[in-house]
Amino acid sequence: MAGAAAMRPLASSSVFAALRSAGRRTLTTHRPSPLSSSVAKEAIRPVLPRQVFQQTFRRAYADVPPKTEAKKKGFRFLRWTWRLTWLSAIAGLGYISYGIYQMRNPDDQPAPDPTKKTLVILGTGWGSVSLLKKLDTENYNVVVISPRNYFLFTPLLPSCTTGTIEHRSIMEPIRNFLRHKKAAVKYYEAEATKVDYEKKVVYIKDESEIKGDVSATEVPFDMLVVGVGAENATFGIPGVREHGLFLKEVEDAQRIRKRIMDCCETAIFKDQSEEEVKRLLHMVVVGGGPTGVEFAGELQDFFNDDLKKWIPEIKDNFHVTLVEALPNVLPMFSKQLIEYTEKTFKEETITIRNKTMVKKVTEKYIEAESTGPDGQKQIERIPYGLLVWATGNALRPVVRDLMSQIPEQASSRRGLAVNEYLVVKGAENIWAVGDCAVANYAPTAQVAAQEGAFLARLFNNMAKTEQIEVELKNLSDAQEKAPSKDVRDQVFGEIKELQKRLRRVKQMGPFEYSHQGSLAYIGSEKAVADISWLTGNIATGGTLTYFFWRSAYLSMCFSTRNRILVLVDWIKAKVFGRDVSRE
Ligand code: FAD
Ligand code: NAD
């Protein structure tokens, strides 16, 4: 009978009774007992209600028939999964914290060594920063010159125009980055105005608001890398610079954001005519390349998710139009993705005007020549409130000037023609990377980054080669002066070893671009992707591609800080919506 009673689960009243007594025990002060000290310690340790709870239940269910083996295994699996999850979360947090600590506490750096060759790098964009990332700065006296003292992650710039992402989240101060290099690097916030390749001098000018005693000077170089990117192409079309907004820099995105809000607020100003309301709320994007398409998609999202909610008066007149001179948008993507993009835009109510070339821009309208289905051309006026001009790249004046000095560059139109080692043709000791260089690749961040990384390897190898050659010369002198045959043989062995190393270092192949694919956001949480896969290509579009687009760009962000900020911005925009204030 006693056994049967023990098999019965403890009634809830007995549990509470046990708890009550435990509570009493917890609060009671124990008198010292004559027991041995360890037992005494055990006796006076207060028993916590949780422990009692566990003990009581363990006792109460001790005789309940055992669970099946499968259930136990399942439970064990869950318990381990749970533990592993926790462990990996803690390890991940530790890794990130250590990274942040290292980022915030840079080590002391040796000063630049002026006795070493001076390597001047122009620009702080994709090409130059990728070079700096991998360059061993101890090998050269490195000087960086750029009017922008930060790196900008351009692929997410269209998202800044509508406040999906804050611009600071995609900027990385160049100072933070340079402070982590092995040897210090000099940075001058200035524009290169001219390169004299024969004198080996770069002329620089401080174009920022604050200027000291010297605002223009010259910097001599032994080696020069030109990575100044490109400026916006306008093809000399009148009125573009005066009335259009570009999308290349952070200030451009800020200007666009302000203009969108200004147009919306002005459109609902008291007594505005209907025609004027329509004009103000007509957002025109010229250029159906990826910049124009991504911006149009972001703008329509902004309207759908936020603007029409907070300013319902603009609901019926807000309209986005994309104007493209060619028969279709996104010419670099595969046919099915072009069709998918055009279909998605139609659903989003974005109008695409293909075969329409803008010829003139005035303050309130653009004049465009469109070709009808019958091949007939006609000129029409399209009124606009916001005009974003995204028609590709043009040469920067400093690049054009350098090209004009070098006869071998006479036939190049789109930028500095370079050879397979990225050396500017016709100029010694000058290399070019990114959008300002012409090497038969599209002007993309991917190409610029790979070119920069290639140059870093090349320069590291060149420094190693020089170092080995000096060592070889010293060894050869030592061999001549060797006092005995044994010593001579030993030095000869070292020379052979070094020569082998020298051959290995010198064996560096030319630059080869590896295309990873193209990605573009097209709005309403959809993206298109042409991805290189094994020997073929995968073309995909839709919401899954959008998640891929987001994770790819998040992983490509410059630093952990950028990654965290971008992620927080996305969450913020999803939870609270985008900010519709004008600034
Ligand atoms: P940039 O990155 O433009 O850098 C040029 C640097 O030179 C800047 O620091 C600038 O301040 C500096 N500079 C300018 N003039 C001078 C001077 N006179 N002297 C010294 N320094 C100077 N590509 C992709 O592959 N994927 C994308 O998703 C993508 N999205 C994009 C989105 C937008 C909105 C834009 C505009 C471009 C995008 N691109 C993308 C293209 C990509 O940004 C460029 O191909 C890339 O920036 C080129 O790198 P770069 O180093 O040549 O020039
Ligand atoms: P783009 O050169 O790719 O496209 C510009 C478009 O403007 C062209 O299609 C051209 O036909 C059109 N155009 C030119 N003049 C016109 C006129 N007067 N009227 C109407 N249309 C006109 O330019 P982009 O989109 O600024 O891109 C520049 C570079 O940056 C490209 O190499 C691009 O691949 C790269 N980029 C890539 C991405 C991405 O991969 N997601 C995003 C942005 C930019």
What class, by secondary structure content? Answer: alpha/beta
Q: Look up the CATH topology of the largest domain.
A: FAD/NAD(P)-binding domain
Stretches where pLDDT is under 50 for at least 5 consecutive residues are 1-44
Please give the share of residues in helix.
40-55%
List ligands, each type once: flavin-adenine dinucleotide, nicotinamide-adenine-dinucleotide
The residue-averaged pLDDT reads 90
Helix segment count? 18
Distance between the termini: 82 Å
Instruction: Work out the radius of gyration.
Output: 34 Å
What is the strand content?
15-25%
Main pleated-sheet profile: 5 strands, parallel
CATH class category of the largest domain: Alpha Beta
- Tally the structural domains: 3
- Based on the structure given, which CATH architecture of the largest domain is correct? 3-Layer(bba) Sandwich
Shape: globular
- Number of DSSP strands? 24
How is the largest sheet built, in terms of strand order? 5-2-1-9-20
Summarize, please.
This protein is α/β, with parallel strands linked by helices and 583 residues long. It is 44% helix and 19% strand.
